[in-house]
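Technical annex B. To support the medicinal chemistry partners, we prepared a structural model of the target in complex with zinc ion, based solely on the information shown next.
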Amino acid sequence: MDCLFCEIVRRKIPAKVVYEDEFCLAFYDINPQAPVHVLVIPKLHIESCDAVTAENSDYVAKIFEAIPKVAAKAGLTGGYRVISNCGADACQSVKHLHFHIVGGVQLSERMG
Ligand code: AMP
Ligand code: ZN
């Protein structure tokens, strides 16, 4: 399977890793949209939020358990936003579920 984020999980493509456990990997986005921009991904290939099922949702739960640790490691003491783009209308460009953690600045009230 030709998936960029699976390749990062396998360490075939380098990434600046912030946090890792059995279920997920967090690394800095290559094209940051905020002073701090980290991606958290499951180690299992799940295409998007639309592909979350009862069989794989453990990975999603583990990601949300990891997010406070990721945020602390990235120095996000003032808060942060968690975003997941799903499908074409949301401009999802990498078809492996990921959560953007953005912060390090006062974010806009607008989200879309
Ligand atoms: P999305 O548009 O929601 O699918 O987000 C994909 C994100 O992956 C974008 O913010 C990209 O900048 C980021 N990205 C693409 N390739 C890499 C890479 N090799 N390492 C880190 N982040 C990447
Ligand atoms: Zn993948």
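Notes passed to the chemistry partners:
The helical segments are 4-9, 57-73.
Residues 4, 13, 15, 29-31, 39, 85, 91-94 surround adenosine monophosphate (ligand 1) (CB under 6 Å).
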